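REQUEST FORM: STRUCTURE PREDICTION
Request ID: SP-0412
Submitted by: Lab K.M.
Chain count: 1
Length (residues): 385
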Amino acid sequence: MTKIQSQARRQFLKTTSPLLGLIFPDIGTSASITLEPAMYPNVEPGQPLVFPEDHGAHPNFRTEWWYLTAWLNSPAGPLGLQVTFFRSRTPYGRENPSRFAPQQLVLAHAALALPDQGKLLHDQQAWRKGDPVALFSNNDTDLAVGLPNKRWTMQRNESDQYVISVNAEQFQFTITAAPNKLIPKPILQGNNGYSKKGPGVNQASYYYSRPQLGIEGNYQTNNNSASVSGTGWLDHEWSSELLGQEAAGWDWVGLNFKDGAALMAFQMRATSGGALQTAASYVTPNEQNSSQTVKFEPLRYWVSPRTDARYPVATRLKTDSLDLIIEPLIDDQELDSRGSTGVIYWEGAVQAWHSRDVDKSGRKRSTPIATGYLELTGYAGALSI
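STATUS: Completed
RESULT:
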């Protein structure tokens, strides 16, 4: 094994060891496994995204996800729903003869934020591509993971609707997400889908969003079952290198406004403090997409009783055209995904107000103008992707 191979192998085992131990424990750190360093393609500007093909998987790239969130209304009140499918290309080469050396992993997270129960229900999946329980298509969004009685699926049909079903341990849901007529097409983030994530030339992703999705479906827990409807957001992103050593994690928010507009904003945080990279896009119902500067200002922190991580769950978000106060549906929306992607982070349903409509004591003078999801990573330890 060459020095480069050895270094790549140690880094891969370091960043994915919780996952490896669950999916294929025999792999361990055995010297008999030969790791061929994978050659991942770079993300480069000027590469046009083509649909429907780019709704599907891009297996040559290292990391990819399809991420759907929704703010839903039910007879018991509002609730949050999240499901994410991940595809990860490992460093194991095709020459490796071991059946325990997968080239692709298929992972998934799902969660329900239930204010009426005062808690977040969360589950996760982790499998090897090639097993009949882990599938993805390169031609369109068509993903499946899990055993027959615990199957999770996401498919885009000919009507451009996403049909999603999750059968988790403590909850189940089936929903359909349909594009809004006001924003019917994917929104290309960054420079026509090329989204910078850091100062390095290769620190970027291909990234598009589907905001203002109309959601219909039902959910079930051990205590309740109900029909739900509301508004969702889908992100699809793929890359070969997202975070450098100087990055601690990111804050991301996707908001669907009641007037039909949509806002995506993120900051990549530096380990030394401050922001490495920021971006925001504000899309109006007539599909005018304007790039925006962005600033996140923490207003209130929540400390996890399980991990002691301190998350800025209430935030003031300023862009060129907006000044918002963002607050969570419930504080405790921390996800422990060490059984799949290997990280702990906060990802939760939120509401937003114009800052002018919130006084110094936090009282609101109006109803929320937007709902969506806030994602906070790197607060429970260094994030490695």
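NOTES: Helices lie at 3-23.
Reviewed by: T.R.
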